[in-house]
Amino acid sequence: LQGLRTKVLGQKVHVYGEVDSTQTIAHALVASGAPEGTLVLAEAQTAGRGRMGRAWHSPAGKGIWMSLVLTPRVPVYFLPQLTLLSAVALCRSIQKVCQVDIGIKWPNDLLIKGKKVSGILLESSGEDERLKYVIAGIGISVNLKVEDYPEELRSVATSLAIESGAEIKRETLVQAFLLEFEELYALYLEKGFSPIRLLWEALSVTLKRPIRTHSPSGVIEGIADSLDDSGALTVITGNGEKIKVYSGDIELR
Ligand code: BTN
């Protein structure tokens, strides 16, 4: 990554052709001593994974499929905050590089006109109630064309090229993301979650909108109201009850 302006993130980069998942490779690199900031990039993934056990469509040469190693010594329950921070960094870097109207759907999906263009999967390992390491897996559909998507994804997924009408240089976007992430991460480690939370709220396409989600106790429907200090989403239901959603997915209604 020539001209990269970060101090730590992306200073060690491992680039692959086809892999099963960059996440798997990043975990193995950490096990053999890879430091914070190590970045794994692949042209294609044969078993790209998404949140909640889903698959991630990762065709060759068309997207950014990458995993970033982080070692924040923070309590394990801070992980949702890092998830939201990742979404903010990604959203801001895309806004800097492309002309698209992009926003964040809780917790960390990036949408353009209601269609998903990028997703984030955080996998972590903890020790003594603190995080030992986190692998931030990021998938950005950059230069895919409509025909690169299987039929069933076309109504729900899109790419930066489809939406902006221009091909985007992947390296430029990777560098912009690493710089943005490094700045926000430093801000977070110094000042805590509050500044990140404000940035997230400003980029959200979820807040003040009617949503539906499934919890262990049944379906929750209401208006997404705000984020709390832990990163949970507060939903106000029809009868005025406030319910917190800590994990999972929401549907925008
Ligand atoms: C989601 O929205 O469900 C998260 C998708 C995350 C996909 C990325 S692509 C690079 C990294 N390697 C994987 O196998 N998954 C993540």
Automatic annotation (TrEMBL):
User: Which family does the UniProt entry place this protein in?
Assistant: Belongs to the biotin--protein ligase family.
**Residue span(s) of domain BPL/LPL catalytic:** 1-189
Reaction(s) catalysed by this chain, per the record, are: biotin + L-lysyl-[protein] + ATP = N(6)-biotinyl-L-lysyl-[protein] + AMP + diphosphate + H(+)
Residues recorded as binding biotin, renumbered to this chain, are Q45, R49, G50, R51, K116
What does the UniProt keyword field contain?
ATP-binding, Biotin, DNA-binding, Ligase, Nucleotide-binding, Repressor, Transcription, Transcription regulation
| Role | Acts both as a biotin--[acetyl-CoA-carboxylase] ligase and a repressor.
**Part of the intact protein present:** 70 to 322 of 322
Q: What is the protein name given in its UniProt record?
A: Bifunctional ligase/repressor BirA
Q: Which GO terms describe its molecular function?
A: biotin--[biotin carboxyl-carrier protein] ligase activity
Per the UniProt record, which EC number(s) apply here?
A: 6.3.4.15
